[in-house]
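Extended Data, record L-ascorbate peroxidase
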Amino acid sequence: MAERLVAAATLRAAAPSGPSPAGRRAGPSSSAFFPSSSSSSPALRLVSLRTASSRPSQKARSTGRGRSVRCMATASDAAQLKAAREDIRELLKTTHCHPILVRLGWHDSGTYDKNVKDWPERGGANGSLRFDVELKHGANAGLVNALKLVQPIKDKYPSITYADLFQLASATAIEEAGGPKIPMKYGRVDVTGPEQCPPEGKLPDAGPSAPADHLRVVFYRMGLDDKEIVALSGAHTLGRSRPERSGWGKPETKYTKNGPGAPGGQSWTAEWLKFDNSYFKEIKEKRDQDLLVLPTDAALFEDPAFKVYAEKYAADEEAFFKDYAEAHAKLSSVGAEFDPAEGFSLDH
């Protein structure tokens, strides 16, 4: 969840600009999701970041004793979500920002705590990451660039929520990078103010003293299991980590010195804009010193329970794609409040 989810548990991604050679990938961030490696490309600099205060997706009515009760209004419009998906696809073609968009979705949802009943206190995918107070959390370094990229799309389609937009962007980025189709549902309700943002410290760390234990503490809290932890870690196949942002990785390697986008950083895979199972192969073999291996990456082949799945995914890309798609969809929904309650699909 540099710029990757379970690599150390955070996705950090550079938002490169300009055409990329076939099969290249873009950057990560410094939490175990995706370490942040976002760069300020010309495309990003041209996009002005608008105010983070969205139109409330809930209305408040006053009750006795000065209290207020929030009543949910309609969440997202399906037609606008479909149109926004096409705009995201075009954005990906021109900026190659796949990794940072995956990180954006994961970091909005990865704050979920299954032990907390009430929404939005329980965290999860609720659009809270649009507010400065949460953007400034250490694990979210560089994600302001992701918000700059998607804000014009939000402005164009006001009848969709930030929570849905972040998850739509994340799933679309995986699919457009060659990954599996994610069985997403939509209708997520947004929080209405920065006071509803989760406290800092909910996301995974890239270099904990006990990596396997740390991953379990963080992801079990979200209701995810060992198989899902390992599958989600495979998203590190996208992106690169920049030491000036995350404290991890080399300033430049043979795979990143020419971009795409701002050059530099260290990737987990050679083709860091292509989604496949090469992350597991590279971590297992550890033959290339130009490729990044974080403590939480190494743990996938060192911990006996994790290793079962990591070995499987290194040998069988189809199995990885299947398990990844299911885990990504689950992560995108945990903790979210849906309107309608059952959510809806864009493809049925």
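Summary. The beta strands are 9-10, 32-33, 58-62, 68-72, 240-241, 266-267.
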